Amino acid sequence: MKTIRLILGDQLNFGISSLSDINPNKDLILMAELNEEATYVKHHKKKIAFIFSAMRHFAEQCRKKGWNVCYIKYDSPDNKSSFVKQIQYAISNFSCDKLCMTEAGEYRLRQEFEQLNKKILIPFEIRKDTRFFATEEIFREWANGRKQLRMEYFYRELRREYKILMNEDGTPVGGKWNYDTENRVSPDPTKNIPNFTQIEPDSVTKDVIELVNKSFSDHFGSLETFHYAVTREEALIILEKFINERLQDFGPFQDAMLTDEPWMYHSHIGLYLNIGLLNPKEVVSLAEQAFFEKNLPLNSVEGFIRQILGWREYVRGLYWYKMPEYSQMNYLDLNRTLPEFYWSADTKLFCLSQSVAQTFEHAYAHHIQRLMVLGNYALLTGVSPNELNYWFLSVYADAYEWVELPNVSGMVLFADGGILASKPYVSGGAYIDRMSNYCSSCQFNVKKRTGEDACPFNYLYWNFLITHEDRFKKNPRMSMMYRTLSKMTDENKKQIKKDAQIWLNSEC
Ligand code: SF4
To answer: How many domains in the chain?
Structure first.
């Protein structure tokens, strides 16, 4: 029997389930650079270049193993633009008896492949994606019947099950599950930040960059510099450098932001994990090993492991537990369009111009820039979930809907009404000022609550609390904010609402 083994652009791993029983003499690996996938949202140029180059390198590694590969380049005359047409083309041209793939990571694509399964005349086997710690079924079992689906408790279950940072007696190493209270240190501009590990593009990547510049010229983003890893070997170098050079400071400075320092002490491996070049189990295992062997600080190692074993697994589980309704949720009835400066970085708000400019340049911004600057501003100004999800999904190299949607609709916009987060993540300028040095370069005054030169985050923040008072006043995690609000005079509140309205009508 000759089987077509379809490999998607985010399944670039020899351990993927669709390849587990490949017959090298007969089977055919099918990979294609498809217009439909590059444009269903207009992805950042660097994201497209990264995925296409990594796909081409993976295909070449498959050929080196002696496997038969049908690789359809973007500009090939045989390119049929969509998976359905490409598969139908392959079936009729390569006389295969069976089609096999690992399930797609996004709801949109799973629906498409299920429809295709009903149409094609050869057997079509769709296998489970085994790259995660927790299956979708495990999450469902954990979630069913619970009143609240908090990540922390799911994370603890996985820590216990996989014995990560655990003592023999079943207690967490160090005595606590979570060291977040030690992980909110303000940035230290005098402290050395290790250089970003740059991988020089080879001829394959250079060809792809030329292709993307030509074919996707109207997409957001720069291709001026490209230093991402595009093979597993290169991604392992990045991971090793992170563990050796940055991990020790990751914990305390994970929320810190500095002007013109996009990388800080973060790992920048999300794009490699999500495309398959790195496996989450190996990443967690190497970080844990570094804790024991290199004596790295527990708050840094636990904080990093929680991002992968906790947060990443949790958002994927939640996505599949709640789709498709999750994509339609809009608890706060937000309906404004995304400000134009999210595409241009042309804004007087320095924190936002930094975050958008770095996103344009690198298809990357770290999680506090995403959550507390870009996301916070969108929530305070009432950007609709559809608009913001489109932006986040298209501009970040690590963004796939299964990870992007819960983060944006759940964490950033509280669109799910509190399924994911226990309160909306809103703040005024004081938080950004504490965690960055941005405000000293900004024309607005972060200390002022109202007035023409006041930081807009300030009056927008209080305006948000006033607007949604009925919804959140009784939320115990927001009681301090509402106590402060209750002490304001009516005149203060009137001025806040007025300034917010002027800003919403003009600047944003
Ligand atoms: Fe951002 Fe306000 Fe600080 Fe300016 S003053 S950088 S707008 S937080």
So the answer is: 3
Q: Which residue has a Cα nearest atom 7 of ligand 1?
A: 349
The Cα–Cα gap between 411 and 405 comes to 9
Residue 351 Cα to ligand 1 middle (Å):
6
- Is the domain of 363 the same as that of 425? yes
Q: Does residue 260 sit in the same domain as residue 303?
A: yes
Those residues whose C-beta lies under 8 Å from the C-beta of residue 310, and which sit 6 or more positions away, are 151, 152, 154, 155, 158
DSSP characters over 81-132 = SSHHHHHHHHHHHHT-SEEEEEPPSSHHHHHHHHHHHHH-SS-EEEE----S
For residue 365 the two structure tokens come to: 């911004």
Which two tokens mark 356?
A: 């958008």
Give the model confidence (pLDDT) of 429-448 as tens digits. Answer: 999 999 999 999 999 999 99
CATH code: domain of residue 501:
1.10.579.10
Burial class (CB in 10 A: 0-12, 13-18, 19+), 248: middle
- Ligand 1 — pocket residues by CB below 6 A? 349-351, 429, 432-433, 438-439, 442, 444, 446, 455, 457
Shared-domain flag, residues 141 and 111: no
Structure tokens that stand for 195 in this block: 């250089």
- Quick one: 153 and 301 in the same domain? yes
- Most informative mutation of 341, 349, 461 for ligand 1 (most atoms within 8 A of CB): 349
What pLDDT, in 10s, does the model give residues 132-189?
A: 999 999 999 999 999 899 999 999 999 999 999 999 999 999 999 999 888 889 999 8
